[in-house]
Amino acid sequence: MTVAKTKKRLLFVDDDPAMVKVVGKILNSTFGPELIEFHDAMSGEKGLRKADKLQPDIVICDIHLPGMNGFEFCQTVRQSGLSATVILMSAYDEDEDYAIQAKEMGADAFLTKPVKKGELLFVVNFILQIEHLHQTVHTKNQELTERFDSTVGLLGNIIELNQSQRRGHSERVSRISVFVGQKMNMSPDSVENLRIAARLHELGIVSLPRDETVEEALDEGSSRQVTSHPMVAEMLLKGFAGFESVSELIRHMHENVDGSGKPDGLIGNRIPLGSRILSAASFYDHYMVSHPDSSILEALKSVEQCGGTWFDENVVSLLSDYALSQDQMGDEKTVSCSVFGLKEGMVLASDIYSESGINLLRKGTVLNRDMVNNILRFNILDPVEGQIQVRE
Ligand SMILES: [Fe+2]
User: Fold this and answer.
1) Domain covering 8-136 in this structure, CATH number
2) How far is CA 8 from CA 4, 159, 238, 351, in A?
3) Is the distance from CB of 315 to CB of 180 less than 8 angstroms?
4) Do 329 and 175 meet the contact criterion of CB atoms below 8 Å apart?
5) Engineering a disulfide at 186: which of 39, 111, 190, 286 sits with its beta carbon 3.0 to 4.6 angstroms away?
6) 333 pLDDT exceeds 80?
């Protein structure tokens, strides 16, 4: 098996200077400083201070130390949340089974003193291999997450292209939903599913006949009673790995808490919380889009009127908090500029769309040099629409 190529910090805690010197020499000559960065401490107390500062990947500690012993050291390291692999070591004692005690204190391995070179290298090499495996799995997971996010982004852009009348709706619903979900103490995974469900909740509308799509945009209030678009979205998504929970949230987004909704007539808390949030958030934003002259308070009133019948009243209350906080943020000073006025470091106060309706960048994005260059290049093919709002 290939050993990890990234450098690992190893902290060796022992009050015997000769032992520290020998172990340091063995590790250095075998792995080299480019693979193992060796640090030492002469007591448990000093070891803890160094561990806190260095955040080592591997800790090797003698059990018999003046002051804090190795077991106490190991237990404190574990309580601190440090994720290092800990190896305890001690001379063989026929009356005490130190290895079992070491395991109980949270150690990952145990070495008997006097430590033999072969055993030390075997254990350290094994830990490096495990670290390498963890690193590989972590990297692969990140790649998969990025690919999944790209798929969600692509689907979101396709939905946006079919929703020229209410640009940014899905993104706004997503922001409201995440805010409410977090305030309701949903787990990070549940909030993430809700964020994706909000981005994709109108996937089914893309499949509706054009005139029906327009009607859906203008009147969410009446169309939610008859439209089947949540079930279409569910059908499109649920067969794909990773979208199972998301499709379930979208399926129930037109359920009403009094049981009068579709498709299953679920009542109150039987409706998934994410669906209840999505339901109110989408309704609110549809109202704002279809009543452009209305104030936020009027839009909130339209949602509050349905609290307890269509919408969860707790969700409505938090949605009001969100909308009012955004209203106050709207007072922050923004300036408008053309695409040629964009600079690195600017914060977008509105989404950027191309004239053909592609959502190029989202509100809140902090521009970097690549983004500015990409927008300028894209502008040649499909010009950016209108002026861009940026925050000073
Ligand atoms: Fe919607």
Assistant:
1) 3.40.50.2300
2) 9, 46, 42, 43
3) yes
4) no
5) 190
6) no
Q: How far, in Å, is the centroid of ligand 1 from the Cα of 287?
A: 10
The pLDDT of residue 345 is: 87
H/E run at residue 53 = helix 44-54
d(C-alpha 384, C-alpha 381), whole Å: 9
113: nearest Cα among 93, 96, 91, 94 = 91
Q: Is the dihedral of CA 318, 168, 200, 143 positive or negative?
A: negative
Distance CA 359, CA 257 (A): 34
Burial class of residue 175, CB neighbours in 10 A (0-12, 13-18, 19+): buried
> Ligand 1: distance of its center to the CA of 69 in Å?
62
The CATH number that domain 332-392 falls under is 3.90.105.10
- Give the Å distance between the CA of 224 and the centre of ligand 1: 10
- SS3 category, 214: helix
Topology of domain 162-331 in CATH is Hypothetical protein af1432 (1.10.3210)
Cα(108) to centroid(ligand 1), Å: 51
**How many Å lie between the centroid of ligand 1 and the Cα of residue 352?**
20
Q: How far is the CA of 170 from the centre of ligand 1 (A)?
A: 7
